[in-house]
Structures are given as structure tokens and as C-alpha cells.
Input
Amino acid sequence: MSTTILLFRQDLRLHDHPALAAAAQRGNVLPVFIYDQQVAGNWDFGGASQWWLHESLTSLSESIRSLGGQLVLRRGNTVETLIELQASTQADAIYFSRQYQPWSAALEASINAEFMRRSVEVKRYPGTLLHEPGSVLTGSGTSFKVFTPFWRAANKVPAAMPVPLPDIRWTPTPIATDALIEWQLQPSAQDRMPDWAEGWSALWKPGEDGAKKALDTFLEAPVAQYSEGRDLPAKRYTSRLSPHLKFGEISPRQVWAAAQQRKLSAPQWSSAIDKFLAEIGWREFCYQLIDLFGEMPNTPFKNQFAAFPWDNSKAQLKAWQQGQTGYPIVDAGMRELWQTGFMHNRVRMIVASFLTKHLLVHWVEGERWFWDCLVDADIASNACSWQWVAGSGADAAPYFRIFNPIAQGQKFDPEGEYVRRWCPELAELPKKFVHAPWEAPILTLATAGVELGTTYPMPIVDHKAARQGALDAYEVIKKAS
Ligand SMILES: Cc1cc2nc3c(=O)[nH]c(=O)nc-3n(C[C@H](O)[C@H](O)[C@H](O)COP(=O)(O)OP(=O)(O)OC[C@H]3O[C@@H](n4cnc5c(N)ncnc54)[C@H](O)[C@@H]3O)c2cc1C
Output
């Protein structure tokens, strides 16, 4: 009987898993996850993602156990670990889902090269994206660098349908496995005090079931409000699927298929559903861009930004990280991030604009902080989004589009509900001042229990002056190019 090693990567699910389905057709399946801390270089899982990984692997292990198998966990070099597993099990094939991180192609090539010599079949399968990078191209055969025509062209290519859960015969021989707890992925396991992830289990349900539930809940009702509601951080009108998609607990094809079904049962929501799918399209676009330009996480896509005169004040970066800038919508976002591992998309744009333009701190600093703090930290979406906001990315927001944090707060959090939730020291301020407490009369501040500079900081920069400073800095690279 043939044995196939099924290497799980960021595809921690059993349904719509083409590599697993193909492995199951060959014979016995040995399911393996290898935590290779070296392969991604500086971009190994951040703290919040490690928490999620632990939970997601726990969930996957349980699903496999309930079907009579055992997920083998190993930590170490991927190729070396595969060599050892293949030798000890006499597996004659290794299957996995193709991944698109900048380091993935080299890893996949070395697995292929190593096992070709040993006459072990190596195959990689799609399943992480709707469309493989390189499959949606312009009329002249080049990659798109602008989202709208990319997505228009992508929509003309039918997305593949999800594949069902196959009948699986797991490898019967018991194989040595690490205990997940030994990997110390969670802060509680590392004696890291305080346990910053305390309470996250009530907020998130990592794993395939949690992913399906998040999708079903979203398509049941909130999607109806998506077109306008997606910009309101105080409301729950978005799917919160990003960490599930990041870890592959659900595939974009499953999301696509379920959304198409929903359009049939609720045709009046079709345009909201299409808007939602266009955001899935942004995820695709980011992967297409990072495939084109693997340096995206570290280097500006637009070369002229390499000479940008960043200020990089450590004190201001720290104030931003800690939600102590004195701008309530920025501080609320940064505290939401720290306390939940997530931040609403609108607020991500505001805080990113504030860091790169008001504070003139390099976008890589923000990207790194997000990488460590976000449960959905994704190399392509994170890098492309930071560059989009900073103005250096493909199809980026024009540099001179500098978000006014006060106006953004007033527009997208008109009642101050979001700010009050994450900055409780401002909770009693009337809504007129909740986004600009320094404008409130002394008596109003006193009645609300706010003492600026003591209970809540004064703004660390003046909005108008900072805006002008950003525009002046931009002039430097404009002149140079
Ligand atoms: C500075 C910055 C950094 C970001 N970093 C990440 C990141 O590390 N990981 C990540 O998944 N998203 C990132 N995003 C994109 C976006 O903020 C999140 O995907 C979104 O907030 C997730 O919430 P949701 O699942 O409720 O989204 P929904 O609105 O329900 O969207 C559905 C799905 O579409 C995808 N998506 C939505 N918006 C975007 C976008 N702008 N770019 C790419 N994909 C998108 C996500 O997979 C999301 O789950 C970043 C955005 C900014 C501005």
C-alpha cells in the first residue's frame, strides 16, 4: 500500500484540500505539520499568530483524531524532517498545497530536488488562492499593477469549485510526534507576564469549525450591511475571516462558493456580496503583487521612496504602539490591536497613515508591529497594505492623501462608540469632543473626568503642522525623481 506524506502548511483544514484529496486516492496518508522557524527568516510567525497557530493545530489534530488518524508535529528544518519521516515510513510520495510567501518557492524547489533523487513523488496543489499568480494577466501577458482591472479580469475566469472531504485511510503505524505544548507558542506557556492573550479564546474560535461558523454567521445577516457598514469600526458588519483565511482553515474557494449560494437565496444582497468578494479580491491581488516583487515586505515597490527622509523617532513610535498619541481614533485602534489581536480595516488605514505621515516613521516599523500583534498577520496583505497607505506600493493611495484623524473619527465613529470602548478614560466626553478632547472646555473635561496630560495624553503632534511636514518630506523625493 502506498503512503503519502501530506505536509500541512498554511492550509490547516480537511475540506476543500486538493492535496489531501489526491493523497487519499493514492493509499495511506501520513498527516504532518513541521514548524520550521528558520525558513521565513525575519518573518517567522509573530506572537499573536503563534497563539493562533497553537489553537489551530489543536483543532486540526482533534479533527484528524476523530477520523481515526494522528497529526504528526515536528519542529525543525522542513527538508531534513521530511527526509527522516520518509525514511522511517517508506512513504513514496509527498503532497502539499502550494504557498506564495517570498520564501516558499525556494523551499518547494528544494523538497522537489531532494526527493527526486530518492524517487519519491513530490506534488504541489492549489487551494490557497482563487487564482494562481500568473493566471490572471493583462492583454499583453503581464501582471496587473492596478486592482480594478485585475479584479475585472479575474472575475472572467471561473473559480474552481471546492473539493469534498475524501475518505481517508491514515497511516496505521504510530509515528513519534512532538507535544504541541512543548513548542511554547502561547504566552501562558512561556511565563511571559502578563498573558496578553488572556480572554482571546472567548473572542476567537481558531480552526475549521470556527472558520465555517464565522462565514455562516456573516452571510446570514451582517453581509446585508457590508457596503456601508464595513467602514464603521464600532459595528460588526465585516466577516472577521482574515485569520481563518491566513491559516487556511477555510479556502477562498469555499468563501466564494458560499457567497454565490447566498446571492441565489438573497438576491437583494447581491451588490453587498460582490463588494465583500472584491475584498477577497484584494487578498488575491496582494499575493499576485508579492509574487511579482518578492521584496515587498522590506523594500518600496516604487523605487523613488527608497530616498524618503523618514524621521523615525523612537519615542513617537512607542507612543503609537501603546495607543498614547493623544488622537483618540488612533489610540483606540492600537489598543484594540493589543487587546484582541485584530484591528478594523478602516482604523488600520488611519493608524498606518498617522504613523507614516504624521510621525514620519518608516512603514516597515508599523508592518513589523502589526506582524507581531495581528492574529491575521499575512506577509502579502500586510506588506501591500502598508505600502498602499504609505504611498510607495503598486496602485497605492496618492502620497498627499493624508488622513485627518479627527475628521476620520467623526465620519466613521460618529457617536464615539469605538473610541469609548477602547479608550475608557474618554467615555464620559460628549460626542462633540470625543475625537478632539483638547478642544473641549475645561469644565467639560472636568465633568467627564478627563485631565489632559494626566489621564489622557495631549496630541504628540499638531495635525496641521504634521501634515505640512509630510508634504514637505514628499517634495524631497519628488524633486529627486
Ligand atoms: C496597514 C494595513 C495592514 C493590513 N494587514 C493585514 C494582514 O496582515 N492580514 C490581512 O489578512 N489583512 C490585512 N489588512 C487588510 C484588512 O485590514 C483585513 O484583511 C481586514 O480588516 C480583515 O477583516 P475582515 O476579515 O472582517 O474583512 P472583510 O471586510 O470581511 O473582508 C473579507 C476578507 O477579504 C480580505 N481583505 C479584506 N480587506 C483586504 C485588504 N485591504 N487587503 C487584502 N485583503 C483584504 C481578508 O482576507 C478578509 O478576511 C491590512 C490593512 C491595512 C490597512
In short: The chain has a mean pLDDT of 96.
